[in-house]
Amino acid sequence: MKQLKAIIAVCTLFCVPAFAATQINSMDTAGYTKVASLSLQQAGLPTVGDSKAVQAIDKQCHKLGIQPDQCYFRVLSILGDSSDHKTAFVEIYKK
Q: What is the CATH number of domain 19-94?
């Protein structure tokens, strides 16, 4: 039974998606290096911090070889109307 619990714990650890990108604002960018820009397409309310957006940012950081704890992003602008934002422009930074 103890082995089963250990196996379940390890499987849960690797199955749960981990989003590591951290949002920063324009005042925080002084100690960071800009590495990429990203345009995110989304429908609905402006939820840049939601899992799909952060997952896309994390994927870009992984492509660039940036460690998860060094991945940061800043939202430049969000286009669309007040109830259906379509495009978010994001800059990706590393520390």
A: 3.30.1660.10
- pLDDT of 93: 93
| Pair 43, 15: CB distance under 8 Å | no
- The pTM is what? 0.67
For 27, residues 6+ apart whose C-beta sits below 8 A from its C-beta are none
Reported confidence tier of residue 17, pLDDT bands at 50, 70, 90 = very low
**Structure tokens given for 49:** 């911090």
Q: Where are the domains of the chain?
A: 19-94
CA-to-CA dists, residue 58 to 3, 40, 44, 83, 88, angstroms: 33, 13, 21, 26, 15
- Residues composing the chain: 95
CA distance 95 to 47: 24
Closest by CA position to 74, among listed 27, 25, 39, 21: 25
> If we measure between CA atoms, which residue out of 48, 73, 41, 46 comes closest to residue 58?
73
